[in-house]
Amino acid sequence: MACRKVLRRALLLAAVASQLAGCTVGPNYKPDHMSVPDAFTEAPHPATPEEIARTEAEMREWWAQFHDPLLNRLVDQALKGNYDLLIADQRIIAERAVREQAASAWYPQLDVDVGGGDNRYSTIVGNWPLRPNTPINRPQTGLMTYGASASWEIDAFGRIRREVEASERGIDASIEARRTVLMTMLSELAIDYMALRGVQLRLQIAGANVRNAQSEVDLTQRLYLQGVGTTLQTAQALSERDSEKATLEPLKTQASKIAHAIAVLLGDMPGDLKQTLETVPTDGKGSVRLPDLPRFPSTLPSLVLANRPDIREAERDYAAATARIGVAVAQLYPHFAIPLNFNPNASALHQLFEMNAMSWSLMMLASLPVMHGGRYTSQVVQARARAEASRLAYRKTVLNAFREVEDAMTSWQDDDRYVATLGTARTEAEQAADRARRLYKAGLSDYLNVLTTQRAALATEDREAMARTERLRDAVNLYIAMGAGWQGVALRDTSLPIDEAKQSILAKTFMR
């Protein structure tokens, strides 16, 4: 009879709870729409729909536009082994666990306990005169107990719902953060690879310069033996040769450091890729071949807004901060809970399950914050201020993204003209050096003219190699600024492997 009464009360409380849990306080999230321009001011021309469609397709694997098989292979390895990406995977796991932790408050919380032992009470504390069956008359007794305690918070004003909502937005933000890490890694890898090929080209140029300088040494020595040259000219030629040799070692050091950085990005030891990266691709003339320069990509500000993961992450952070306002506001409203305690006690095992040993309580509790010195209103103010800061951070992220695109477009176009100008200057400098060499060989010019024109030719050729490398870097920067690279890379399985065979029976039962 008593059990039926308890059951009826429990059903009644559950019905009341279902009626209470229907309100969600706090503001609902509304995206902050920024007005963006129709086109980028630094774009060479208005983008056509065909160009935009082409760029959107190329963005999925933009590194393939450089037509370098080794770069493609390195990217594939980095996507599997880069530690920054693996760390970002674990952060997604952690955010999903935070969401599950917040959602657990929706369900009844149940604990069971069992125990037994001896209790002894003080015999000098009690009521006088002594009455039968008081602890003073029987100071020592055995006690056996088992039971359960449960509580169920009724989410009457949506505090738990807002907590879960904020956690879900946190999951979204962690996914976008991983995409940002992915793009940063791809950017570093591609830029390091371009720099490595650029240094290798400069090493080849410097090696050719050393050989040319040695030829000048041989020429001055031969002319001196013929009575035409002087020891000063020979000394100048030797000094020029040794100066060119001195440029080799810093370039070799730079190439080694870049190779080490690329290996670490792939999750390998610094020296693992040394032999692979030292295999230099060449063109038909035997020169180091730099990766191909892609076509200039076309995009619109609205596409950048949709593609940039840092913008999407900032927007998700703003959504999470808005949900936390509701969490703070809910603290100002009444809290409803249903506590249940079931705790039979007896001195003998056979008595534990008798009706007289039963002890339980089941009720509905409501609490209303009345006076807390402004604590809860201060929490609401904090939550609103943090949400507004997140909104402003979102707007700042948008502006910085557009600035990066405009800067990258400017750099690409300016460096394109710079490379063309240096190419012309290199051709002219090589012609001047060749004429000076011929005139000197014929005895019609001083050797100083040879040194001056040769140094100018060598410096121009080296500057052109660096400019071509920088132009490739501009291409990488523009693709990254446009938010390219994550679209074609699926998220990995972000779940921790748990060996259920090693768990206890209770862990296997309640793990999920």
Count of discrete structural domains: 1
Total strands: 6
> What is the name of the CATH superfamily?
Outer membrane efflux proteins (OEP)
Largest sheet: 6 strands, antiparallel
Beta-strand content estimate: 5-15%
Shape by Cα distribution: elongated
User: Any idea of the CATH topology?
Assistant: Outer membrane efflux proteins (OEP)
Distance between the termini: 36 Å
Supply the number of helical segments.
13
> Mind telling me which CATH architecture this is?
Up-down Bundle
Mean pLDDT: 84
**Share of helical residues:** 55-70%
* Content-based structural category: alpha+beta
Computed CA radius of gyration, to the nearest angstrom: 38 Å
CATH secondary-structure class: Mainly Alpha
Order of helices and strands: HHHHEEHHHHHHEEEEHHH
Keywords: Lipoprotein, Membrane, Palmitate, Signal, Transmembrane, Transmembrane beta strand
Pfam families: OEP (PF02321)
Signal peptide: 1-21
Subcellular location: Cell membrane
